[in-house]
Amino acid sequence: MHHDQSAQAALRAALPNPSPRALLHGLFDTAVAAVSAAQCLPAFLPEPPRGRTIVIGAGKGAAAMAEAVEQHWKGELSGLVVTRYGHGRAPGTQGRIEVVEASHPVPDAAGQRAAQRMVSLLEGLTEDDLVLCLISGGGSALLAAPAEGLTLADKQSVNRALLKSGASIGEMNCVRKHLSSIKGGRLALACAPARVETLLISDIPGDDPTLIASGPTLPDATTCADALAVIDKYGIDVPEAVRRHLETGAGETPKPGDARFEGHRSHVIATAQHALEAAAAQARALGYEAHILSDSIEGEARDVAEVHAGIVRQIVARNQPFTKPCVILSGGETTVTVRGSGRGGRNAEFLLALGVALDGLPGVYAIACDTDGIDGSEDNAGAILTPDSLARAEALGLRAKQLLDNNDGYGFFDALGDLIVTGPTRTNVNDFRAILITG
After folding, report:
1. Residue 2 domain flag
2. Quick check: is 31 in a domain?
3. Would you say 245 and 149 are in contact if contact means Cβ atoms under 8 Å apart?
4. Could you give the strand order of the β-sheet that contains 130-136, starting from the edge strand earlier in sequence?
5. pLDDT tens, residue by residue, 396-431
6. Is 26 a domain residue?
7. Which is the most buried residue in 184, 242, 401, 414, by most CB within 10 A?
8. Domain MOFRL-associated, which positions (predicted)?
């Protein structure tokens, strides 16, 4: 046993011993707290301008970000942000920045009205004014402003098809940018001649700010041709007006190097890596070695589960590449190509596939949750897998493999009482996965 491992073992022996479930739940809570707006945003606030400050923004974290700005801003302030239904201010509270709620992941008329009002707030600004833009994951669907010649129904049908196709978040946002009148940098152009400062909470693997919420205030390197390629790759049947809009280049976005973005700045204030590092520190404080595999894993949830299962088996059997007991952590955004009719969620699907692959391997526990508190479009953040999950399900007459084939991870963990329900966290750095290998 290496010296640091014996030190970890001594630490474990000396510490109060949380159950595996409590330990994993605590790691998730720690991860979410580390990427809250209250924790991350104040350090990035710019100096107040000579003129007015208008706050705009969109995303699952928009209300919490607006509250953090209000708490720490020294000058006058007004504005409007849009967030998902249920992710707004606490009932009965209000502030200087108006918070409206709209639909996610498929846009609705409330999101369209909010986008129109936001653009009208930006009229008549001067170069002495500052626009502070607060962006987090989910903002793409919440700011619904169809490009000229397209309808909200057009955008909704394309969105629904993309969500079921297995397309990555980058591919989805490429299409969304080119069907919008404000995404892909166009919202920043509407702020001219005011300076734009964008603060972002990243839900994008790799943390590219131009991809977060389809980059409404940042130039866009993708093209209409790229958007068409995504539509064709997944065989998506789009309305004729959408195809024409892309084929004619009418949907082209402003590109990097465009002088109109000069003097604008953006900062990514919270990422999956921040959340994973906080969880790793917590695990180490409890006496466990902790290893971050990656902050940006993408791919089908069940394929990602197979790879994690292979790593777990190697640790259990051979103490490679890590020595047990330990915690392995990963983040990113998996996808689910929906083939069944069950209630899914990509984190529930990951855990169910992991459970099937591990087949009751003793001493292995796992949690997978979406840091926004909502796994896909369900009411749970995710779930917990234990070594006896499959056996307990079997006793209830549930066959894990069949439920996986039906994309029914939610149903499986609901029956076991192992869903994790937090409610909206009002932040979002995507998936959080932790696997505890007890020895």
Report:
1. no
2. no
3. yes
4. 97-102, 78-84, 53-58, 130-136, 195-201, 265-270
5. 999 999 999 999 999 999 999 999 999 999 999 999
6. no
7. 184
8. 24-247
